[in-house]
Amino acid sequence: MPCEVKLRFVVLYGSQKGQAESLAEGIAEVAEEHGLVAELSCLNHNEKYNLEKETAPVVFIVSTTGDGEPPDNALQFVKRIKKKTLTTDHYKHLCYALLALGDTNYANFCNCGKTIERRLQELGAKQFYATGYADDGVGLEVVVDPWIEGLWKAIKGALSKMASDKADLLKGEAGKSPKGTPNLSIPHVQLNLLRITDHQNCDSIKASAETVSKCATVSLAASLTCSLPPLSESPLNVPALPPAYLDVSLQEVDSVEQVRKDTLHAAPISRAVQLTRGDSVKVAVLLELDMSAHPMVTYHPGDSFDVFCPNKATEVEDMLHRLGLQDQRNHQVHISLLKDTKKKGAQVPSYMSKNISLLYLLTRCLEIRSVPKKAFVRALVEHTGDCVQKRRLQELCSRQGSADYNLYVRDSGLSVLELLAAFPSCSPPLSLLIEHLPKLQPRPYSAASSCLRHPGKLHFVFNVVEFPACSGRPAGRLGLCTGWLFDLINPVLVFPENDESSSSPALPKIHVSLRPNCSFRPPADPSAPFIMVGPGTGVAPFIGFLQQREQERKEKPEAIFGETWLFFGCRHRDGDYLFREELEGFVSSGTLSQLKVCFSRDEQEEEEEATTSAAARPRYVQHNLLLNSRHVTDILLKHNGYFYVCGDAKNMAKDVNNTLMEMIQTELQVDQLDAMKTLAGLREEKRYLQDIWG
User: Measured between alpha carbons, how far is 307 from 394 in angstroms, rounded to an integer?
Assistant: First the structure.
């Protein structure tokens, strides 16, 4: 029999945290089911692909990081295609599709994907499939799932069109064709959303009557572990099982080396001060680190640094018991690739050191608090004994169960351990966790001090994060890093009025690493005015800005310094007005020209009520910006000032951006499009800068 030749295409990815890489791998893995062969590569591995000579369709999967920047493993590729020496027909032979991942809670949504696409088109490349823009703010799968579903038809259409055009050229019909030169671009391919009734290429799984009746007797409401009709009665489109690729074994040894990166610095905590008081909704804490043992570590206002925290000891213990490995906690972990794995580009995770114990692996290497991805949920199905629990896991990873997955898993921030606790018949092997769980990431914090004011010290501020109880989480829990820090310093925590300059030798050391931020810094020209917007703990980096400015004013009394404005907001004046005395001191010394504060939950004084309408009282920082619209826009647009925003990305940063656009429209008498262009120009000039988080 003649051998079937499978047509090839190329998959290239750029990924910062692994999501884009995982999607690219998934596409490559299921390509065979569609009669295709995928060649998978990271964008920075340019020795493995050659776009200059590529004749097959190319699929790009790219995420965006930071302030709209390319992921680290796509940076060199973006730089290469941006070269001005490239001609407009450099990629005229190339046809591509692109899936961009981003988050609308942040500025420059999907900017890396947009940058790559714009440049490809400028260089003559042709698109064969509509670009997908997936938003992590609402759930990537909303766009990703239907985009991938329609990709296969588009790839086959592109391959067919390319083969047809090539055949026409070989026959010499190009010049005779009434259409003239063959159009090498690929016609638009419609993206079809998968319907519940579309089961031609998917495994259909029927709900048994036993499953429905069992669920109905347990609860009349849907929950993490129980669904209701129509989902409980629907056939399901369950994704393909991710192929296993790691061989993991445990070996008893006399001693196991515990590894720490030499780029980390062990710094003792010298002070811990609780900044909030009373019945404040949040607990904010100022920590001071003694960096005197690391004289080479210098930071600037606006820089941030990583705190390396372990997983919670009790949760590690629970995981050991759940895996049935509690008696092997000190055994050495050996990890290698399965010889017969079908996973494309499989490799042992680079952050896994060779000589580590199981306890160290679960404590320092794997993010056991991570929210399980659908691929992991799908893999768990194979290790679940109870048929009702198995069906529910199938629902959660299916297309039909996307709403339930978002509600009970993603939006609730459910951890892997919490998911396993909810499905007691699920017993995954250790290898599955290593294959699917991400690396335990350090947590970044902004420096809240200046080396000029506090030599040898580093301050930072954090709110103790709380996750409320939910379906699958019977009791609330604290955030991983902030909860760990709070437990460390709780015995010696003081309030500002009891704060003493003497150090506390009983406090432990924590491991940190500097993350320089070369853009989010005060203007290099001290005469340039700047505006800071930082409600809540978002004020932290601006304390460093102002400490630096105050010291510079003392050292250079003859110098000219520009205006400084700070817009700060919190719930209550007497509960969470962070750094109140220090901020008022900056105003008194002339370091801070204008301090605009607002309190969203305080009742106004009677005399204010008599003279000011409730609607005019500023509750949030954006309201105070509007009240000072003329001054703010003058500073930005007439005096070449700078505008800094730090804090919550999901609400505050969006509201501030919209308010700023409204102010520009009003003050310049322009429409929204022109206002957007003005803001874009400020960003381009690095005069509108954000340090925000979700």
Answer: 37
Could you give the CA distance from residue 588 to residue 578 in angstroms, rounded to a whole number?
17
Q: Are 314 and 293 in contact (CB under 8 A)?
A: no
Q: φ and ψ at 282, to 5 degrees? A: -115, 155
Please, what's the b/e burial string for 29-49 (b: 16 or more CB within 10 A of its CB; e: otherwise)?
bbbeebebebbbbbbbeeeeb
**What is the Cα–Cα distance from 332 to 336, expressed in whole angstroms?**
13
Reported as a pLDDT band with limits 50, 70 and 90, residue 25 is confident
Encode pLDDT of 216-240 as tens digits: 444 457 899 999 999 999 999 998 8
pTM above 0.90, yes or no: no
Contact 126, 186 (CB under 8 A): yes
Q: Nearest to residue 622, comparing CAs of 590, 657, 583?
A: 657
Task: Report the pLDDT value the prediction gives residue 358, as an integer from 0 to 100.
Answer: 96
Model confidence band, residue 110 (pLDDT cutoffs 50, 70, 90): very high
Say which residues have a Cβ less than 8 Å from residue 169's Cβ, sequence separation at least 6.
Answer: 182
Decide the pairing of beta strands 304-308 and 509-515. Answer: antiparallel
Angle made by CA atoms 498, 502, 506, in degrees to the nearest 5: 95
**Tokens standing for 367?**
């993010």
d(CA 332, CA 256): 6
Structure tokens at 680: 């874009």
Q: What are phi and psi of 188, to 5 degrees?
A: -60, 135
Segment 57-63 mean pLDDT? 96
User: Cα separation of 401 and 395, whole Å?
Assistant: 5
CA distance readout (Å), 278 to 247, 274, 499, 574: 53, 11, 17, 8
Q: What are phi and psi of 587, to 5 degrees?
A: -65, -45
CA–CA separation, 362 and 355 (whole Å)? 14
Residues 583 and 547: their CA atoms lie apart, in Å, by 10
Q: How far apart are CA 546 and CA 449, in angstroms?
A: 9
Cα 566 to Cα 596: distance, rounded to the nearest angstrom: 6
**DSSP state letters, 537-550:** GGGHHHHHHHHHHH
DSSP string, 496-547: GGG--SS--TTS-EEEEEEE--SSSS--SSTTS-EEEE--GGGGHHHHHHHH
Residues 13 and 61: beta-carbon distance below 8 Å: yes
What is the average pLDDT value for the chain, to the nearest integer? 86
Report the half-sphere exposure of 75 (CA within 13 A, side-chain side). Answer: 8
11 half-sphere exposure, CB direction, 13 A CA radius? 26
Cβ(542)–Cβ(309) under 8 Å? no
In this structure, are residues 49 and 10 in contact, taking their beta carbons and an 8 Å threshold?
A: yes
* pLDDT tens digits for range 179-217: 444 443 333 333 333 333 333 333 433 444 344 444 544
- Per the CB < 8 A criterion, the answer to whether 9 and 58 are in contact is yes
Q: Which amino acid is at 268?
A: P
Compute CA 660 distance to the chain's CA centroid, rounded to the nearest angstrom.
Answer: 25
Phi and psi torsions of 133, nearest 5°: -115, 100
Which structure tokens are listed for 327?
A: 């008696």
CA dihedral 310, 315, 316, 317 (to 10 degrees): 140
- E strands present in 67-136: 95-102, 126-127, 132-135
SS3 (DSSP) at 567: strand
pLDDT at 351: 84
* Residue 121 near residue 89 (C-beta atoms within 8 A): no
